[in-house]
Amino acid sequence: MKFYTVQHIDAWRESKKKGYLEGNKEFAIDGFEKHYSWMMEQMHKKLSKYNGDYPVWLWSQKPDRKRVEQNYLEKDTKGVLLEAELDRADVLLSDFEAWHVVLNNGFFSISEEEYELWEQNKCNILKEESWERIFDLHLLESIGDWGSITELQGVTGKIDIDKINVIYEFVATGCIPEEDD
User: Fold this and answer.
1) Does residue 143 sit within a domain?
2) Could you list the pLDDT tens digit for every one of the 181 residues in the chain?
3) Which of 47, 110, 171, 177 has the fewest Cβ atoms nearer than 10 Å?
4) Number of domains in the chain
């Protein structure tokens, strides 16, 4: 199955020397260390071949070039969009929007009633247990508030270089400010 990842050009160059692409804790967003660690715990639980490497973040669909150049790296940073051919069993998929519930340290409720019970400390599921729902794509599609999954993201461990193709190199332009209404 094809997956896509955006990497800093230096990470790509280092990967070519090593023979594999790997995640790097230094590039994790500050303040989300606990959440990234939680994701790695889930990878241990759900991916049989995962050996504890820092995750490489993936997309299931090729991101549009304009979005890549505007949103993935800081302005004027050289980057590369890569395509990797991976076994589906080696990638833990989740809904991109649902992942933000985890990043915001929220409770992932499947109904208003469940959320109210959780707020009253009467819910039979812990907050961290509710986060595991981000991987249940069938559940997410059936929940009225979510409707349908628009973006699937994935995580995996090291990726052998022979499984990667360069789509294109770019220089990040930075986010375009939103237009006034």
Assistant:
1) no
2) 999 999 999 999 999 999 999 998 887 778 888 999 999 999 999 999 999 999 999 999 998 888 887 788 888 989 999 999 999 999 999 998 899 999 999 999 988 899 999 999 999 999 999 999 999 988 888 876 655 667 899 999 999 999 999 889 999 887 655 554 4
3) 177
4) 1
- For residue 174, CA distances in Å to 69, 71, 74, 117, 170 come to 7, 6, 6, 42, 12
What does DSSP say about strands 152-156 and 56-59: parallel, antiparallel, or unpaired?
A: antiparallel
Q: Nearest to residue 102, comparing CAs of 27, 11, 36?
A: 36
- Note whether 49 and 86 are within 8 A (CB): no
The residue assigned the tokens 């299931």 is 60
Q: Are 19 and 90 in contact (CB under 8 A)?
A: no
Residue 58 lies in a domain: yes
Report CA dihedral (89, 94, 96, 98) to the nearest 10 degrees: 180
Which domain covers residue 39, as residue numbers? 2-105+150-171
What whole-number distance in Å separates Cα of residue 181 and Cα of residue 172?
26
* Torsion of Cα atoms, 178 then 9 then 80 then 135, to 10°: -80
Tell me the two tokens of residue 16.
């070519």
